[in-house]
């Protein structure tokens, strides 16, 4: 007779073999999905390693090219990249966010973006969304004043002197700075905002602090539990300066939140000296926290939201502008065609302006070539090309021809792959704005279904209209007055990450005046 210890060992071994080998490889509904790697049914190590070494998007894409619209990345993780039975199902509401998004909490408090559950998210979004709607932005006196100030008093004077002095400009940094000035002024009020466009040393200090945390994102995104344990022992995986940088940025947001609160309570300052606007987003977020009770102190509840908006708003927009300017610099004839389009605006954006007035956002929005250039940049240089993870719901759901999937599976789509469908976007790696202009109605609608730079559904980018409006204005203002030429684009290729900036973190251009 076998001793009890041997029977127990046999039972444990059988259980472990069943749970970790037989079930995931042969019985789980996920076993019918092609594996991205032979180890995928048994261990998440392969995909973790790809994430750790910044190869995630391209590795997932390669797996889709090989196996089709759906692939298994780990024992409990799949990637789906198609529209029908894909993003239309996953992102239409029933699938909540994977806890991965907690890395975007600030002050230890979830913001709208990082909230996993649909209900509290929808509550917040309903109140905040109004100020980011196209109709609100196009008619907003605050947005008009912010735009006039940033374009005519900051961006164009800066580029004018760079052009006159033939001084090359680092354009990624500048694009981030302009985008930051726009969003911060809209959130906190122009009088409380940054002037990173002109104040290069303040800009550098701030962005250095913001960016130096990036290499350590892996731990807070994928191994949060392990990170917390190790951080208690000491700075083993995350140097002290990462937390110090986070504290600095959070204090910065708290300071401006208080300033915005004060602006709302007092009369506008002397307009002649400081152009001022209502802190639009602050006011709206403040309203939303009054309407819904939250389990966190009100000031932190407001500040976490506002911090997320300036972070999401400047980085993505800066990256997109940088790639648009790079592509235009590679295509001088397009610069000419665009300029022709810009000269149809009334008033034009010529600098110095006879009066500092702007064409309406509606007329800018209606320029077809500008729109096509932006869409094409967002397609092939998506600022967020990486996976957007969700959780399968309790109701078993089939995706891309899979068997019904159980609850709690991590599932994502990624713009990187959706935007490279050769049957939808022929010659997908090429930047071709004309594909949006020459397409038939049907082709354009199909491209629109696959275009996913801002996501889709109830968690789609809330700032997409804001971003499009500011990017169109900035581009029109620059290319009405200057042509751009590449000085140094070494390392311009995008890194492989959720948010993807140029590898070398720079693009240097030369600005040349065109006579109007
Ligand atoms: C070119 C510029 C931009 C791009 C490409 C972009 C892209 C995206 C994408 C792809 C998402 C969904 C991400 C996910 O679910 O994982 C998102 C969400 C979001 N974006 Fe943007 N974004 C841009 C500009 C902005 C701006 C200017 C703001 C300013 C408010 C903003 C604020 C947000 C917020 C708050 C969310 C979360 C929405 C929610 O959960 O309801 N974004 N963005």
Automatic annotation (TrEMBL):
Needed co-factor(s): heme
Residues engaged in binding heme: 461
One function term, GO molecular function aspect: heme binding
UniProt KW keywords: Heme, Iron, Metal-binding, Monooxygenase, Oxidoreductase
Pfam families hit by this protein: p450
Compositional bias of kind Polar residues: 391-400
Annotated InterPro entries: Cyt_P450, Cyt_P450_CS, Cyt_P450_E_grp-I, Cyt_P450_sf, Cytochrome_P450_monoxygenase
UniProt keyword Oxidoreductase, yes or no: yes
Region (Disordered): 384-406
Family: Belongs to the cytochrome P450 family.
Name of this chain's protein: Cytochrome P450
Origin species: Imshaugia aleurites
Organism lineage: Eukaryota, Fungi, Dikarya, Ascomycota, Pezizomycotina
